[in-house]
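Complex 330.
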Amino acid sequence: MGFSIRGTGLRAVLLALGCAAAFQAAAQNAYPTRAITLVVPFAAGGPTDVVARTLGASMSKTLGQPIVVENRTGAGGTLAASYVAKAAPDGYTFLIHHNGMATAPALYRKLAYNPLTDFAYVGQVADVPMTLLGRKDLQPADLPAFISYAKAQGNKLNLANAGLGAVSQLCGMLLQESLGTQFTTVPYSGTAPALTALLGGQVDVLCDQTTQTIPHIQADKVRLYGVTTLDRIKALPDAPTLNEKGLKGFEIKVWHGVYGPKDTPPEVVARFNEALRAALKDPSFTNRMAELGAEIVPADKQTPQGLQTWLKSEIDKWGPMIRKAGVYAD
Ligand code: ASP
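Predicted structure with aspartic acid bound:
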């Protein structure tokens, strides 16, 4: 009797467990059932936003649901990262971020999240060069002239950036260090408004990704001094590198990662990653990225492990350099 009761009870439990598992599997297969938010840490219309919106449009074709970009600006991208770290881990909130994910721990003494432990890692997207720009009527016509001019002008030159943690800030910091001079820094909520200020002549210099700057360079609205990669780039073949014109070894490439909150179910991360990898082969994404100077990352970087390993190496690379420069926010 006791055995039979236990047997029946066990069957009931197994049945119930089976149902729960089947229900869970069905829910995961059904994912996503509604729109997904992709948080961008900088202003709409800027270079990170351009990558996010083009990527989101392509990924939504695989996922069958819209990806809605939400711009959560402030504190050089750290507010957006903190928001996503604390969001519900249900597969409906993700973050796209760049090198700022790796530089923030050295730049911010009180960071509300740990980039290496508080996220679910989806994969990397594309690498983007930066361009050093001056306002159209800034006196020096080319990079060597700019270098001497900048050394002489120092803090009379206004340098726009997107706050501490932005790549525009990182580029400006390296530039000032290599020139041995100090500009006056003007922070914005992203480099979209920073570029508007450059076009309007309110600031003198901006270092920004090609995913925003190429159309303005082609329209001859700004002075292009050079690119921040070690070698010249296909999208701007006539632009010299800073490296070749006297700033030896100057290199910044902007990389992008997609993250979810830490406890996002692995099946959901896998599905989101599948959509990401499909987008990285989709001509509507890849052609636009190529026009804007971006390079799709190789397959091994398009994975959760590829992102996590890269992030750790970037934290190890930039941390000591930033600490040495003594730049930080309390
Ligand atoms: N280019 C910006 C940065 O400096 C970010 C942006 O506005 O997309 O990080």
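Residues 1-8 have pLDDT under 50 and may be disordered.
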